Amino acid sequence: MSTIVKDPCGLICIPLTYVAVFYADYVVVRWVILQTMHDSLWAPFHAVLFNTVIFLLLFAHLRAMCSDPGAIPLPETQMDFSDIHTDRLPCFPRSPESSAMLAQHEDWTVCTRCETYRPPRAHHCRICKRCIKRMDHHCPWINNCVGERNQKYFIQFLVFVGVLSVYALFLVIVSWVQACPDCSDDVSIKQSRIVHCIILVMESSLFGIFVLVILYDQLESLANDETTIEQLQGSKENGGGVPLHKLLMSQVCRLPCYSRASYQRSHNVHSV
């Protein structure tokens, strides 16, 4: 599955991600490093290191966004699913293709939405309109599903976002605490630097908390060998409520295009 998913939420979140990253780079280089460290050997060191993290972040994001998450191939011809809905098998025989598939994979299930057979732990995503192997969730921030084949890239993306957020906060704090005798005395420059730094602190804090929640969820899923969908289904089947951090992830992950209706759809759809 290499085509671009035409999800309005994802098409908003993708450019928003790049704007946030490049704005952080602009503030750190222009208003932190060049303003407070321009005569120090630390200036080129931090500039190169910060942009290296950005490069790794963007590379991981592109891999997570463009990689096939594990989409189940669609059948070349429409399969006959009439035997699933009726007991009159003689009148509605299975097609040779579906019979062969069932004979080879008895534990596979049928998805009547994309009309294909799917292996265990695969789930259908109505946004991607495909069944995904070991689907964890659909993430609008990469405009793609997180599944068997791209989860490692998604985790790398989260790690680099977290590192970049902490690094940006560290540089801003150092620039505020450390004395800067060579800084410009121009009031407008000082005010601009303060405003940009405050915005960067807010951005880094929000994204840092966001990736911390999502990264914790991903690592927990790997440790338990259980996807987010499977955890939500298990809680529902056991009569328990959705764990708080799962609910937080479901809501935050779809910002800024979150609505109550979209959450209800995603909760019901992504756990199919």
UniProtKB/TrEMBL annotation:
GO terms for cellular component: membrane
Catalyses which reaction(s): L-cysteinyl-[protein] + hexadecanoyl-CoA = S-hexadecanoyl-L-cysteinyl-[protein] + CoA
Residues spanning the membrane: 9-29, 41-60, 153-173, 193-216
Keywords: Acyltransferase, Membrane, Transferase, Transmembrane, Transmembrane helix
Cellular localization per UniProt: Membrane
The protein's Enzyme Commission number: 2.3.1.225
Organism superkingdom: Eukaryota
Topological category with respect to the lipid bilayer: Multi-pass membrane protein
Keyword DNA-binding assigned: no
GO molecular function terms noted in the UniProt entry: protein-cysteine S-palmitoyltransferase activity
Domain comment quoted from the record: The DHHC domain is required for palmitoyltransferase activity.
Family statement: Belongs to the DHHC palmitoyltransferase family.
Protein name as catalogued: Palmitoyltransferase
Organism of origin: Nesidiocoris tenuis
Upper classification of the organism: Eukaryota, Metazoa, Ecdysozoa, Arthropoda, Hexapoda
